[in-house]
Fold this sequence. Notes:
This protein is of the alpha+beta class. It has 2 domains: about 5-90, Winged helix-like DNA-binding domain superfamily/Winged helix DNA-binding domain (Arc Repressor Mutant, subunit A); about 100-195, Beta Polymerase, domain 2 (2-Layer Sandwich), CATH 3.30.460. The chain has helices spanning about 25-35, 40-50, 55-65, 90-100, 100-110, 125-130, 150-165, 175-180, 185-190; strands spanning about 40, 70-75, 75-80, 115-120, 140-145, 170-175, 195. The strands form 2 sheets. Strands 6-5-4-7 form a 4-stranded mixed β-sheet. Strands 1-3-2 form a 3-stranded antiparallel β-sheet. Strand 5 (about 140-145), helix 7 (about 150-165) and strand 6 form a beta-alpha-beta unit. The longest helix has 15 residues, at about 150-165. The protein starts with about 20 loop residues before the first helix and ends with a strand.
Amino acid sequence: MAEAFLRDVRAPAPEQLPIFRSRLQGELLARLLLGPVREVSMLDLAVMLGADLASVMREVERLARAGLLTLRRTLAGRLVTRNAASPLYEPLARLLMLTFGPAAVVAEEFGRLPSVRELYLFGAWAERYEHPPGGHPGDVEVLLIGDVGPDTAFDAAQEAAARLGLPVHPVVRTSAQWQEDTDPFLREIRAGHLTRL
């Protein structure tokens, strides 16, 4: 991978929440603290984040010393996971959800599509944004309103999924279909939790 494409901790603090040292730190924490509990190797984490292994290792070790992450040695190498017992876990996970979580990533990835008129999270993640306490869901369900082709929606979903480490499922409807209110599936979405992005 070309060095120009790798991110490390020398990159500037992210605009979303400048209390993080770097965008890499924010995305690393989001990958581990949001969504289902996961234990990953340092190498896999570096690949997921598109960052160099040395930078990921330094950041993980720093966060483990702070008690936010837990490291475990295995024959295959060191594995890292969240430390849900840390008193900082819940408040930090909430900040990460708002700044590096599904709503932020979906808004960035799908917001680039010129034909998207409205964009929503629905389902479990929309409920999580409305009612912050509780566990983190897995799949991210996205409703796109506009003239978006299925391939375009799928590509944006794949980009968002790669960044989040969570499956992203887009549902596409035209503006007319959204206004008509004759689709039972759309009625079900409207009746549930819906977060506009």
